[in-house]
Amino acid sequence: MSRGIAILGSTGSIGRNALRVIDALGPGYKVVGLSAHSSIELLAEQVRCCKPACVAVSNGEYAGRFRALMDGWDAELLVGPDGLVELARSDGVDTVLTAVVGAAGLPSVLAAARTGKRLAIANKEPLVVAGELLTRIARENGSMLLPVDSEHSAVFQAMQSGTTSEIRRIILTGSGGPFRGASREDLERVTREQALSHPTWQMGPKITIDSATMMNKALEVIEARWLFDVPVEKIEVLIHPESIVHSLVEFVDGSVVAQLGEPDMCLPIQYALTYPKRVAGIAKPLRLEEIGKLHFERPAPETFRALKLAYEVARTGGTAPAVFNAANEAAVEAFLAGHIRFVQIVELIEHCLDSHEVGRANTLEELLEADAWARAQVRTRLGLETHSAPCRAPQR
Ligand code: NDP
Ligand code: MG
Predict the structure, then answer these.
(1) Which of 96, 142, 172, 227 is found 20 to 30 A from 117 (Cα to Cα)?
(2) CATH numeric code, 3-147
(3) In angstroms, how far is CA 353 from the centroid of its own chain?
(4) Ligand 1 binding pocket includes 55 (Cβ within 6 Å)
(5) Number of C-beta neighbours around residue 20 at 10 A
(6) Would you say the CATH fold of 317-381 matches that of 3-147?
């Protein structure tokens, strides 16, 4: 029997790679659902090629254009943020690959976890915002959470050498981004173009900026805390510019188990889809003899302050991680739109956290309220109009 996969965010960097991986996997894996937000022409192309039973256009404004492009097509079209949620819990889907960017993916990932589906998680922000809620719902409904993020896929693979109680440390590696070794003064002069050119990974714009500020690694620390149920005190970050050792786990006996590979998301995407099996795929083989040397160094938390903040908000808990994430999303949006300088991204997050009164985070509504509050704070501080937050609770 083939595995029915829905890709939420199929038009993005992860989504497009996932389609290549699934195509190469062959008949055992079938795309049954796709979603896009605004890249309608690309979505139409993907739908013609994969013929999924169900399609979601999460930005309702583009639904009409999609219908016009797909004249005569008779599969199901789901529209708006609720459409994305419907797709995630739809009956014909047994695996949901979450590749939407940002907290906008939270309602759909929770919906999929509630229906006990297998979740291949690339969209890390929901785990940061709602790690406790999401992992509890997944546990209660028998939904398996499989990491797609390369570091977490590496940790997941290394963890198969021992038990959670035998872990001494999880060591997440990071390339250090385009500004590794830069001073605070250097960061003052960074341009949008410089921040968008990552040395080792090809990714969407938001995560590329996150990599440059080290916010990506900060989010990944919290992501690991929830995926592996390990306190943040046991999670460390090591800079590894070649991006070959994707992460490591040190066990209590001193053994360190790592996973290596080329910096290519096809491998972790594939493993999350085929787990517990391993099959031949399209990932480029690793030739260590061609790479020669691997380097490791400590991160610089005084220059890249996002990393320090991650440990603080993880310890604080409640709505703090949701505010941390939403402030970043709003600040990155402002940076990409040319409204602020690079260094202001983390300054805005710090300001937001300082003025936030931490509350309970037991429900989706409480989390979305904190998310909306943080976005509004950032926009007000920048003198920008405060329009609605991009994520909201689904209608029942
Ligand atoms: P992209 O920006 O390339 O793609 C984002 C996808 O989400 C697109 O399909 C986009 O649709 C859709 N989207 C955007 N906004 C919304 C919204 N408000 N509601 C619903 N869908 C939306 O991002 P990436 O593929 O780079 O990243 C996706 C996720 O995976 C992120 O959480 C990132 O942190 C994580 N990740 C990415 C890695 C990578 O290598 N790229 C590595 C590890 C993790 P459209 O294009 O149609 O507007
Ligand atoms: Mg990563």
Answers:
(1) 172
(2) 3.40.50.720
(3) 21
(4) no
(5) 14
(6) no
